[in-house]
Amino acid sequence: MARNPERRTALLDAAIEVLADEGARGLTFRAVDARAGVPTGTSSNYFSDRDQVLSEVAERIFVRLTPEPGAIDASLLAEPSRALVVELMRWLARRMTAERTCYLGLFELRLEAARRPGLQARFTQVLREDLDLNIRLHVGSGMPGDADTVRVLYFALTGLLLDHFTVPGLHAERDLDDLVETVVNRIVPA
């Protein structure tokens, strides 16, 4: 296996783009090579098979979606309140919107994980770690609500972003920030 970390990252980013644009069925070594602008066969020097690409793409998506160190800590210095949860959720929705390709790739990986037990196990582990961290941050900072509040916010935001990216006209009369505020106000206790 080749060991150029920058090239590997570029191939994974290309794979995310292929997933977002063509779906999991379009994710081939040839498609990744073409998207990355490298010679045909390059991806097969870095990844043993498609399953490895999918697994590493999942990890790369979460690296790209992880905020800069300290970004969350600074926002948690404010007084815990429903209004702060609204602002944090808006910030999160904007981050996901800015990384549209990653988020669409994430949806594709969710569907693919339903068909591939190995990917499902790894994907579940990564999502579980992220959800557990969000619960710890929310509860530990004294935000209103409990662990189930965070879970319901997670369910709601995931569904809201699925609609936002896949059927944007469904809620065309409402802007994303407004929808996020509605979600938070319905879920988080005052």
UniProtKB/TrEMBL annotation:
It holds the Pfam family TetR_C_31. The keyword DNA-binding applies. Residues 28-47 bind DNA. Residues 5-65 form the HTH tetR-type domain. Keywords: DNA-binding. GO terms for molecular function: DNA binding. This is TetR family transcriptional regulator.
